[in-house]
Amino acid sequence: MSKIRILLADDHAVVRQGTRELLERESDLEVVAEAGDGEEAVQLASSQRPDVAIMDIAMPKLNGIEATRQIKASLPATAVLVLTAYDNDQYIFALLEAGAAGYLLKDVRAEELIKAVRAVHAGESVLSPAIARKVINRFAPAASKRAEESVQESLTEREMEVLKLAAKGMTNQEIASELALSVRTVQTHLSNIFGKMQVGSRTEAVLQGLKKGWLVLDDTR
Amino acid sequence: MESLSSSLRNKSERITRNRNFWILAVMLIGLTLLHYFTPQVRPIPLTPYFMERHAVERIVFLLPIAGATFAFEQAGGFITLILAVLIMLPRVFFLSPYPGDALVETAAVGVVGCFMIWMIETQENEKRLRQKAVLRLRTINAVASILTESLELEQILNGALAKVLEVMGMEIGFIFFLDKPSQELVLAAFQGIRKQSTVGAGRLKVGAGFCGQVAQSGEPMVVQGPCATPCPTGLAVQEEGLHAQIIIPLKSKGEVQGVLAVATRALRLFHMEEMELVTAIGNEIGVAIENARLHQGMARQLQVEQRLNQVAEEITSELELENILPKVLQIAQELIGADAGVIALLDREKDLISYPYLSNLPPELAKVTVPKGEGLSGQVMTTGRPVIIEDYQTYPAAIPAFASAGVASVVGVPIVSGDQLFGALLLGSLNATQSFSDRDVAILAGVGRQAGIAIENAYLYENMRFYTRQITRAQEDERKRIAREIHDDTIQALIGISRRIEALATSSERKQLTWDTIQRIEELEALTDNVIRGVRRFSQDLRPSTLDDLGLLPTLEELTTDMTEQDGIPVERQVMGEKRRLSPEVELTLFRIAQEALNNIRKHAQATQVALTVQFSDNAIQVTIQDNGKGFTPPALAGDLAALGKLGLMGMYERARLLGGTLVMQSKPGQGATVIVNVPA
Lengths: 221, 681
Prior knowledge:
The structure holds two protein chains of two kinds. Helices cover 55% and strands 13% of the residues of chain A.
């Protein structure tokens, strides 16, 4: 299996180095680029095309949220994890709206960081249920207005089922047992879904589904 | 010869027409008949012994003589006397038995007759004189009443002139004013000649022509015959064939106010009384002219005062120089009747004079700048005194741009306040010179001082706003710094502590701890979390990081969500128009105002519902916060807020104003409150 290719963006060189060391201890992770500010992050992302980007919010030249927005514009398949100081709803909404897959607290422990990188790459959700709820409630009302039929048709029935279950907050394992499929199959489905929806993570897929009106609030309960 | 016979014919016509003539003739004829043709009668016992028989008739002849004197004056009386004597003489010499006595009687009648004629004549003369005097008085009174009817000179002069002509029996008259500043006589009224003939006589120089001479000397003049010397009224005189003129000065308190000239086409001599009459009337007219002038003067002064008041009002009603100075310039121009004006301002730092405010001058002049001290404005500013230039075109320090705009006469005054000089106010005429009186200069100097006050006020206010902005900025920077430190250091440390306490309770050694200890640890954890929450809230209040990072809307959302969750007051949010980020200053100010408003609601309003609306428009943003609480009575003036101790509200108001926006508070006790802030963005 190929390594997960990671881009690190943080304006403190020491922090970057520390994180790099942490990640490269894992055999399945590879840091392919380091950026010291938002602009550099966007440039390196488009040239290196990483699978996952880990970005600090507070960066010079371009802050983390803006950089996320720009990276997602050209690389929808890249999953972006943003590091925040603490749980501030407004920041979380803002970064998710910019296209981030999830967020992590700045002082996150090494294991959690590694777990999050793998999870997001596997299509799992990286939001805690409480936050996930808040996020869905926030984005749902606007979503019910529109329903784009066109792309919906390109998702197979099976894929829609998987998506709906994901929206309910189920893990891949739970979805697999619910639909009597193997976990790998579920992952494949999710991969396809991400590709068709032009997203890089489960969170984005659910949010987009809500915005486009394929999923309604009830689907998430 | 012709005129003599024609006047004789006229006279005889007049006489024969008179009724009295015929009565007298009849009387004479009757008496004559009586004297000669009565039949002889017995001696009348009544006649005294020395009287001749026909003495009675002789005496009765006195009657027609007296009558003739009354009716036809002395001449008539004497003619009748001679006739009577002639009639009586034949009887004396040819018929009377006592010719001696008869002759004596006839002679007596003659003498008595003469005496009688003389006495009657004297009395009649006196009566005539008295009548003339009464007529003169009446005329003077009539003229006086015309003159006092109104203060409108044009009106009364025509009326007075007509009366004078009437009483003098002349048909042509002129009245001239004396215009003191220019020393010219101006035609004010004329009668009896065609209008065309007055052309050329409109303005006469004092000293020129008869009228001018009278104005200069102040003495009346009689002119007989056509004017020989060049007479400005000469044209009129020659054309209209004037032959005799009286020209008198119109005086008041001994000063000449004008000239009155009356003339006739006929040959005529003027009596002393007529001269006196005309002079008396002239004096009355002189007084009337002076009164009218004084009145005009007062009316103008009143107008000037009103305009000056207007200037003061303008200046104190607003602070925007852009609005005040053009108005002040315009009023000054009207006050002294100038064609054009300019306000020159001195830039003290660059030592340059510019002309930002122009009235009736080409707008390109606003771009002209000259070094300090140059030009007329420079002279005014350097000397600090008013300057009058009669002809700008020949003024050595004239600025070419202004000279080519046609500036002719200029009066300039400094614009000062206290001992600070700001510039100069200049007013002038275009293309033709104009003279400015001392009064004009005094008025302008007053306007200049007021303009100076206005400018000083505007600068002071601007300074104050600048300082207030600086202070507010410093305050905000300080808050930001403190919030950041709390955020980066304090809260992080607290979180660290919280985590480690948490770790204590969940560590693998947990089993070794007593239940009690675990309880206490969990309490500590809860306490620490509380502290963290409290510090976070404090830091957010001080300066929310979302404001700088994410903008106004997310920050307002956080603010209102907190209010709903922590204070239990639901806040309904609404955003209208196209969302966009605004300048940091605007976003910060609007946040602070909303923060203050919500604080007030939390502390005082006892409200159960709040609505916050943000409306974006192309060039402004409006935030409205409305609550359904107990309301309050907003003071009439924002300035009273400080006095009432409501510094928070005062601060909101000032911050909105600093950005050039407005803040309105609407509330009534029991009816909630609404705060509306609108800021250009």
